[in-house]
């Protein structure tokens, strides 16, 4: 069963496995409405207990409705419940209300133009809009008591609305950035059809996160502190409740950028947090010697983190008589979604990469996890940072992954390879600031590629390595587009790297968006 906090959410989003489901939550929150993702079995259990949301959203999903044998009468029989069906959710509406759903033969994937039918123009939307389609099955005959409100450019039914009940079905994905006016379309359902009143704000988020920390009582808490916005916000809001019972450990594993250690030392000086730097560079690099597979490296870094923390905690027990009860982590919703399915029973989310937080430590040391940001997105955490009056440059610092440069050296982590990335990344960081472009991109990084290429240095032929620049814009890390940076800036960065970084003769720029790529290369 979900926590009691779920029962206070206005909107429940039933997850049918779409890669975009979490974006529905994000968009509804941006519009000022609180929402949370649940599974179908959780929804059934809550409904059977007489607990209902103010509105229900049925997500898209990778399956065909022809393979779905679930009985949805427990949902659709609630005649007063506002329901939005997106893609797969719309097809479920069509089938339940005795329309005709056909297996797709051509399908629609990617951008498509939709047309709002006469008399059904959505608020703030023009008559024609480009949206993101991703489906094969489709409704070919409209269910009884429904009207067609939107059609796609090729005449397929793209939106249906019940004539008397608060039910809307959309064949496309309004929640993704690729859908123009997607937020307006969602807001039309939430405000005009479901008649909800907005109540989600940074103040509300801070209150909930603080309440979660307060609920553990007077306990000793260990924080896995990275200095990034996630761990910083988690630590600061927890410190307001816990005071000196919060201890922050920063692990210098030798896979940091020059800017990272300087940032931590600045935080030590300016904040009331108890931050201890643990220098274990050689220990980590020895553990990683010979490993080249990305998952092997991630897992070894995670395992070694656990060893370091375990040793440090035992020292605190022995030397200071401190027994820790909780591990505080700045885990965010995208971390949860991409690492494991967030649902205990029938969640369908696919694992994309291993969770980069200290996953095994709580079990090894019998610690409970404290994750006050677990169901928030990056942009929401930044808002919390502003609510906490943290410096703007700290709150809007570029993300940096837990494994650090360990996943930015493709292949084996040799000390000289780590140095190449550290040096090139520092040049990129300096030139972003010199050109006033640091906030023009959401995340910037350099990657050392496992290839060599011919070059010329001085009058001699060189056969050296390649650095790839990666800069993307995003709001939450779930989707991202490559940053179109100025030519003179890229030229300067390339020139400095090839001249100043020993062993590099070529610089390339990654122009892949997410999807299909990921932000990090490993």
Poorly predicted tracts of residues: 339-356
Global shape: globular
Round the Cα radius of gyration to an integer and report it: 25 Å
* Percentage of residues in helical conformation: 25-40%
Class by SSE composition: alpha/beta
Mean pLDDT figure: 89
Q: What is the straight-line distance between the termini?
A: 35 Å
User: Into which percentage range does the β-strand content fall?
Assistant: 15-25%
Strand order within the widest beta sheet: 2-1-3-4-11-10-9-6-7
**Annotation, overall tally of beta strands:** 20
Largest sheet: 9 strands, mixed
The DSSP helix count reads: 16
Question: Overview of this structure, please?
Answer:
By secondary structure, this protein is of the alpha/beta class. It has helices spanning 21-30, 40-48, 73-76, 88-96, 182-193, 202-214, 229-242, 258-270, 281-288, 294-320, 333-339, 361-365, 378-387, 392-395, 415-434, 487-500, and strands spanning 11-14, 35-38, 55-58, 83-86, 100-102, 108-116, 128-135, 138-141, 146-152, 157-162, 167-170, 221-224, 246-252, 275-279, 326-328, 368-370, 443-457, 460-473, 481-482, 504-509. The strands form four sheets. It has a nine-stranded mixed sheet with strand order 2-1-3-4-11-10-9-6-7. A five-stranded parallel sheet has the order 14-13-12-15-16, with helices on both faces. Helix 6 crosses helix 13. The radius of gyration is 25 Å and the shape is globular. The two termini are 35 Å apart. 42% of the residues are buried. The model is unreliable at 339-356 (pLDDT under 50).
């Amino acid at each position: 069963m979900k926590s009691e906090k779920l029962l206070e959410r206005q909107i429940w989003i039933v997850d049918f496995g779409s890669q975009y489901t979490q974006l529905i939550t994000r968009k509804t929150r941006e519009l000022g409405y609180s929402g949370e993702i649940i599974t179908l079995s959780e929804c059934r259990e809550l409904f059977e207990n007489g607990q209902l949301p103010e509105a229900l959203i049925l997500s898209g999903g990778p399956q065909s409705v022809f393979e779905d044998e679930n009985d949805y009468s427990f949902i659709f029989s609630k005649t007063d419940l506002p329901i939005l069906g997106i893609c797969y959710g719309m097809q479920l509406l069509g089938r339940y209300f005795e329309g005709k759903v056909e297996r797709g033969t051509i399908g629609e994937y990617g951008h498509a133009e939709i047309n709002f039918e006469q008399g059904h123009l959505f608020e703030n939307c023009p008559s024609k809009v480009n949206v993101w389609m991703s489906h094969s099955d489709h409704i070919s005959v409209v269910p009884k008591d429904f009207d067609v409100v939107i059609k796609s450019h090729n005449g397929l039914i793209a939106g249906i609305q019940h004539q008397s009940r608060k039910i809307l079905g959309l064949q496309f994905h309004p929640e993704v950035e690729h859908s123009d006016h997607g937020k307006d379309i969602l807001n039309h359902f939430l405000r005009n059809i479901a008649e909800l009143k907005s109540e989600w704000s940074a103040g509300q988020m801070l209150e909930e996160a603080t309440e979660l920390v307060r609920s553990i009582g007077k306990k000793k808490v260990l924080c896995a502190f990275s200095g990034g916005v996630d761990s910083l916000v988690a630590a600061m809001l927890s410190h307001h409740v816990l005071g000196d019972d919060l201890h922050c450990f920063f692990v210098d594993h030798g896979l940091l950028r020059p800017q990272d250690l300087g940032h931590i030392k600045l935080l030590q000086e300016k904040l009331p947090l108890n931050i201890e730097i643990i220098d274990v560079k050689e220990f980590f690099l020895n553990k990683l010697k010979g490993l080249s597979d990305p998952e092997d490296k991630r897992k070894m870094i995670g395992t070694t983190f656990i060893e370091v923390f375990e040793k440090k905690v035992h020292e605190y027990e022995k030397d200071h008589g401190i027994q820790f009860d909780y591990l505080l982590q700045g885990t965010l919703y995208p971390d949860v979604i991409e690492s494991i399915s967030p649902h205990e029973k029938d969640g369908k989310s696919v694992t994309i990469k291993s969770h980069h937080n200290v996953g095994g430590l709580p079990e090894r040391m019998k610690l409970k996890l404290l994750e006050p940001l677990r169901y928030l997105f990056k942009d929401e955490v930044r808002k919390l940072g502003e609510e906490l009056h943290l410096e703007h440059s700290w709150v809007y610092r570029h993300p940096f992954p837990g494994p650090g440069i360990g996943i930015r050296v493709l292949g084996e982590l040799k000390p000289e390879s780590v140095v190449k990335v550290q040096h090139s990344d520092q040049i990129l960081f300096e030139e972003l600031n010199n050109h006033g472009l640091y906030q023009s991109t959401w995340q910037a990084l350099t990657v050392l590629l496992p290839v060599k290429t011919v070059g010329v240095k001085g009058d001699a032929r060189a056969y050296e390595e390649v650095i790839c620049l990666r800069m993307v814009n995003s709001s939450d890390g779930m989707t991202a587009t490559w940053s179109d940076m100025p030519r003179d800036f890229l030229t300067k960065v390339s020139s400095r790297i090839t001249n100043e970084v020993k062993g590099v003769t070529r610089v390339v720029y990654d122009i892949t968006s997410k999807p299909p790529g990921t932000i990090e290369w490993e």
